[in-house]
Amino acid sequence: MAGHTFMQVTPLPLEQLPEWREDRATGRFHHRSGKFFTVEGLDVRRPGGPVPTWSQPIINQPETGVLGILLKRVGGMPYLLMQAKNEPGNPSGPQVSPTVQATRSNYTRVHQGLPVPYLEHFLDRRGRVLADVRQSEQGAWFYRKRNRNIVVEVGPHIEAVEGFRWLSLREVYELLAVPDLVNMDARTVLACLPVQAGAGGREGFAADLARSRDPRAGARHGLGEILSWLSDIRSTVEIHTRPSRLDLLRGWRRAEGRISHETGRFFDVIGVRVEACGREVAEWSQPMIAPVGTGLVAFLVRRIDGVLHALVHARVEPGYTDVVELAPTVQCTPGNYDHLPAAARPLLVDEVMAAPPHRIRYDTMLSEEGGRFYRARNRYVVVETDEDPLPGHPSFHWVALHQLDELLRHSYYLNVQARTLNACLHSLTHAREPVSAGAL
Amino acid sequence: MAGHTFMQVTPLPLEQLPEWREDRATGRFHHRSGKFFTVEGLDVRRPGGPVPTWSQPIINQPETGVLGILLKRVGGMPYLLMQAKNEPGNPSGPQVSPTVQATRSNYTRVHQGLPVPYLEHFLDRRGRVLADVRQSEQGAWFYRKRNRNIVVEVGPHIEAVEGFRWLSLREVYELLAVPDLVNMDARTVLACLPVQAGAGGREGFAADLARSRDPRAGARHGLGEILSWLSDIRSTVEIHTRPSRLDLLRGWRRAEGRISHETGRFFDVIGVRVEACGREVAEWSQPMIAPVGTGLVAFLVRRIDGVLHALVHARVEPGYTDVVELAPTVQCTPGNYDHLPAAARPLLVDEVMAAPPHRIRYDTMLSEEGGRFYRARNRYVVVETDEDPLPGHPSFHWVALHQLDELLRHSYYLNVQARTLNACLHSLTHAREPVSAGAL
Q1: Where is the dTDP-4-dehydro-6-deoxy-alpha-D-glucopyranose 2,3-dehydratase domain (chains A, B) (predicted)?
Q2: Which end of chain A is more exposed for a tag (fewer CB within 10 A), N or C?
């Protein structure tokens, strides 16, 4: 499956990207066609927040993409049609990707590439639709990006063409334990796929997981209570964003062909030239976001009356469609806080970092969307706990796993990092063997 | 209940509004405090739409307001705490309004008015929360406006202060049949209030309605299918909006102190001076949107396997948060099409206008938010039909009434006009007498 696509990625100063222009009037960085995406400046005002104002570069990609997976059943077992796809930002080559992963520019063929295989199954919904929901992506790096996450069940006659393979759902879930292998787009679609099996025959944590996916299982808080909590926060938090000039961004400097924060933290905007074989287009250039440091993304999970709950955090990011989304318990880049006193660190980071091995249910390094982010890696962790470390905290809530699934039928409730962790949790229900700790 | 507040509203040229300024740099019209709202220009591009590009003025009010109703039970019967409230745009004086109807500027007292009674019940959620959901408002006149719709059940000890009255839910529903009496904010909250009674003891259409609110009743399309249909349209329709200068808006002219479309259609932006007694502030000035002509807003409803379904239309408006919302079967100002050939008229207008009286279940003139819209009136109609007038039309779908209720737990599915009609449909379940046709 691996290595199908050769790809050479070379750093290039932003000023030297042949197909990209800086608009003098607006200060935006855009493709000469006016399509794909732009890199813009954003001024953010968040009265009452820990940082009340800041400015940052952000990617604006207004068009909706399709992230689609075809599913078929063989002998009752679900199989997914996955693609080996390389992207310039991937840390280690091709990744297991959805059947279709295409922006509108892709499939309307703005860059005159090849047609997108299997696309018609999603655009025409030829088959039984198992999931079909628009979801956000990184609200810290994308301004109101949304993609359509869709799973369509088809008959057994659909064949895998070159570069694609039918993998059993169990195999895909097992691959989720391999570092950097299943890409972000596949993970978010997997998160939205309704549960495909019951709890029968499992033991231990896998059995608890399966039982906790049953909508009839109880929950600490009713769904109405969770929705009201979110409605309250969304209506109370003030966040104002305003486009601004990329070339005049407070706190950021342009040097050596890249844009960096003056402290060296957060991320850089870099340029790359890409040469590829086996893709629609053989050569192109583009800007990318290159995060500084490796992130930590973790769910604390806990049994409440026998049902597993995840501790979700109502997180504000400037690019969200509606102010706040439900995020993992911990989502940060610990290195950004090394110079600060312990009190300034995000909550529960140390609890996750110091969790004893017997509490760790999942622990794998995964990377984010390699089409826009350059080697953006997060350590994804699920830690089981017996305690509530933040009882009554207004920004955290225990949500039963079946409630996460119910929320995922609708848009913009769970952020993309929480969706990855939800897919990882799903994977633990199906994995044959206990999953060993991954890298780091 | 009526007439509590005296209000004198005088037209004033936009240039002479004492508290409002036109920003030369941005071309926006704003309050000198920078708060409340702005009137801006918007350029809209909708490739493939019936009108592929247009420009228009639009109200930008980024802050979220609270629309809250307190509910209590006396002898098991629900009572709502309603307020008699006047607004400058109301066609005929005070209206039955929610317990609280306040923007953040109101309740943080930017204009140094009086405190907002009962607000604390909603901000602290003191009681049982029956509904709590953010919803859009008119996407043709507001840019991404959203309000929190909330109903809190309290104990029997809460008293009505001056200007407020506890009305039984049945009384409120009966008042919905009176022209221009129940305001838009009350209607949208009533639409989100879950059903408060079963079907027992009713006959005819009221019994059908009550039965069709039961989540266990069947439906023509499953909820997943409806969500997928909406996800498809939201991901397929292209609409791009860009702020532009109000003073350079293509197709609009500024004359006699107002902004009007060069054809005289759609709406004007006008200025008013308001003098009021019994409100927080005794005198102010503001711009308002004054629609040209009276609108027609209608649901066709139809029994499918004994369950009432409404024919919803996936409608694109430039101010929506996510491209499209589910709208009534018909939503238009018929006068805007008088000069055009029949083929250019919106679908089903004539069917609604010509519906025989025995098919009309609801027919009342209601007005829209009088704080921003000047005498904006729509004739709201529910017509029962035996047929599907648009079988297989890609922009229309039959949705069971209990599915409307389920969708209303979440944000941005049903637009504000569909929510009014949903409240009207709810009212017919409870009304003692058959509702006679209203004005017009």
Answers
A1: 7-193, 225-425
A2: C
